[in-house]
Design goal:
alpha/beta, Cobalt-precorrin-4 Transmethylase, domain 1, Methyltransferase, Cobalt-precorrin-4 Transmethylase, Domain 2, 5-stranded mixed β-sheet, globular, binds S-adenosylmethionine
Length: 297
């Protein structure tokens, strides 16, 4: 190691590696792995091919085989000898990744840190199911949550039954082992028994299982397939919706980058007036115009 390298501060990059499949890694994630002296990954959460980006001679540590103390020891070493560490997390590191405590430790050690976002399992499952989670006038919000009652208690106001009362789309992580409780809370919150559900086990892995059911049949589906981990649920009426049309892409809608077609605009106005008259929720010209230039990425 040269004197220059010795004086460089070490760096820890928290890399979102997606739901499992190595080709769902971003270019930035692959680059961070390639530049690392030490790569920390969990064989149970990410496929081994992600390691093909690691440089020859890089130290590889499987975090599923060691306690957090061993990972922290790698960070301490990085602070002393200026090495670069890529810490691979499944999905997106901002969700249930225990990243915050690691960041704080790194900062205490004087290490440089970076977070690289990843494809979260909820968006991977929506893609596999070929479903949009936000459908005009059906669901305009997505709640990412987990069931309480296990080792991790839920903060007040965050029980699944409380979120369920919104009736919108929910992505429920870390909850397959208690499917009976999940169904009870979804029903207590107000979802109809026939509300569509997507159940995904090991999405994007070779053993992937993608099932559709309803809130009423969720528990039986989970038990039939013996799912208790690596499973994600998408719940809500948007998962069964069809025949809707977003005003944003309607030829009668205008925004910063596009002019409206006059005839189509009159039609859209008429629809908006009818909806307002009938008390229908959302949509309408006013809300479509208010959204102009936003939300059409
Ligand atoms: C500790 S959390 C990590 C979530 C991750 N940070 C993300 O953005 O997807 C683990 C949970 O995420 C969900 N999950 C992660 N990867 C998955 C996959 N490939 N298929 C299905 N569910 C997955 C499951 O609910 C699992 O219990």
């Amino acid at each position: 190691m040269t004197t220059d390298e010795q004086t460089k501060p070490g760096k820890v990059t928290f890399v979102g590696a997606g739901p499992g499949a190595a080709d769902l890694l971003t270019f930035r994630a692959a680059r961070a792995i390639a530049e690392a002296d030490v790569v920390i990954w969990a064989a149970s959460l990410v496929q081994e091919e992600v390691l093909q980006h690691a440089r020859e001679g890089a130290e590889i540590l499987d975090s599923s085989l060691v306690p957090m103390e061993d990972v922290l020891a790698v960070y301490e070493r990085a602070a002393q000898d200026g090495t670069r560490v890529a810490r691979i997390h499944s999905g997106d590191p901002s969700l249930w990744g225990a990243v915050q405590e690691q960041l704080e430790r790194c900062r205490t050690l004087g290490l440089e840190t970076e977070i690289i976002p990843g494809v979260s399992s909820f968006s991977a499952v929506a893609a596999l199911a070929q479903r949009e989670l936000t459908i005009p006038e059906v669901a305009q919000s997505v709640i990412l949550t987990r069931l309480g009652g296990g080792k991790t208690p839920m903060p007040p106001g965050e029980e699944v039954r409380e979120f369920a009362c919104h009736g919108t789309t929910m992505a429920i992580f870390l909850s397959a082992a208690r499917s009976k409780q999940l169904v009870e809370e979804l029903l207590e919150g107000g979802y109809a028994p026939e509300t569509p559900v997507v159940v995904a086990y090991q999405a994007t892995w070779p053993e992937e299982l993608l099932l559709t059911c309803t809130v009423a049949t969720l528990e039986a589906t989970v038990k039939e397939h013996r799912l208790w981990k690596h499973t994600l649920f998408l719940v809500g009426p948007a998962l069964g919706a069809h025949g809707t049309r977003s005003h944003l892409y309607h030829p009668g809608h205008f925004h910063t980058f596009r002019k409206a077609d006059r005839t189509a605009r009159r039609q859209l106005r008429a629809v908006g007036a009818n909806e307002a008259g009938s008390g229908a929720a959302g949509g309408g010209e006013a809300s479509a115009a208010a959204d102009s230039g936003h939300g059409h990425a």
